[in-house]
Amino acid sequence: AISDVDTRALVSYIRDNGAMNAVITTQVDNLDALKKELSKIPAMKGLELASKVSTKEPYYFGNGNGLYKTEDDNRSVSQLYDFGEEVGDVEVAWTDPQTMYVTTFPDYWGPKKIYRTTDGGLSWTNITPPATASSGVPYDVEVSYNDAQVIWAARIGRSTDDANKVQRSDN
Q1: Which of 25, 29, 52, 117 has its CA 20 to 30 A from that of 35?
Q2: Could you tell me which residues come within 8 angstroms of residue 86 by beta carbon, excluding any fewer than 6 positions away?
Q3: CB neighbourhood size of 70 (10 A)
Q4: pLDDT confidence of 78, banded at 50, 70, 90?
Q5: DSSP 3-state of 83
């Protein structure tokens, strides 16, 4: 496993020095063989790589109060919905891309909410669990990999009260 990489420093280095070929490996006992493999890779200069790493599926994201969608790698973006408060987490179900979940929060102390759509974002239902604290950390939501109706909602703050835990919902 690779760990403890300062990705900000790495990005800064690439910005300053340009993209370059590299080998990432845990097998460091034969550097000559690694250098030989690296020499077989074509130079990065002038390569058009964006189309190879771009998403082919619609992509959803929150910005301010809105939920947005792009289907062409941000060349065009459309707002699907205005929640009237800050959008936090956006999750699309693996098994049904028409089912999505969005978390919102008006401010730090205001009530945090979870919304669900089953029609691709045309209409939304507030599915926030009852009796949750209004202060602190917004929800982080994960959708089950095999059931679009099952989510895990987490609010992990500094407190140990009942509102700060992971909750499973299947309705």
Answers
A1: 52
A2: 62, 64, 65, 104, 105, 106, 107
A3: 15
A4: very high
A5: coil
